[in-house]
Request: fold
Amino acid sequence: SAVISQKPSRDICQRGTSLTIQCQVDSQVTMMFWYRQQPGQSLTLIATANQGSEATYESGFVIDKFPISRPNLTFSTLTVSNMSPEDSSIYLCSVEEKVLVEQFFGPGTRLTVL
Amino acid sequence: ILNVEQSPQSLHVQEGDSTNFTCSFPSSNFYALHWYRWETAKSPEALFVMTLNGDEKKKGRISATLNTKEGYSYLYIKGSQPEDSATYLCAPIMYSGGGADGLTFGKGTHLIIQP
Reply:
């Protein structure tokens, strides 16, 4: 199974600033995803990170707020832009090696926006 | 929007007792169901992927059943131990004819095992 690391593991940020979260996988994978879990809410899909093209965003999420890069098959970044306290969440990346096989998740980035 | 409901939202169980909880989802266009366990400060860990009506899967003291006709899955834990304390998430996948997609999770059942 893929081993996934995320940086940073946690951060406390000021309102109006931006934070870039990195996701590194130890093997090449086709599918990478970004999720978030706001307090008391479901783990929610933000977008699919596509290698070599623009990410595919879910309803309610836009590129200007959550720009995503996927320069190769082992790495992706998610930026949370112009942060507000409502962006305080755990952000996770995940990978799916084969369709319908389980997704493997990174350890998450715990973000607090003051 | 896929409607996924998990109940109960939280559950306190005495160590050694058995317990179960539910994941409900639309029964039409069902494709597969994922169960995950998410312990605090760790990554969500896959427990089961279930596809067939009547499927029953087991991993140690944890087992799951699937009823695709009525749209629910049960997760059972036998002889609960403190290390079972976690949030249990389900994520059904509906057939869309496309390729791999991200998962739509329920809010989870937060299980606390009391020694």
User: Anything to note?
Assistant: Residues 20 and 95 of chain B are 27 Å apart (CA to CA).
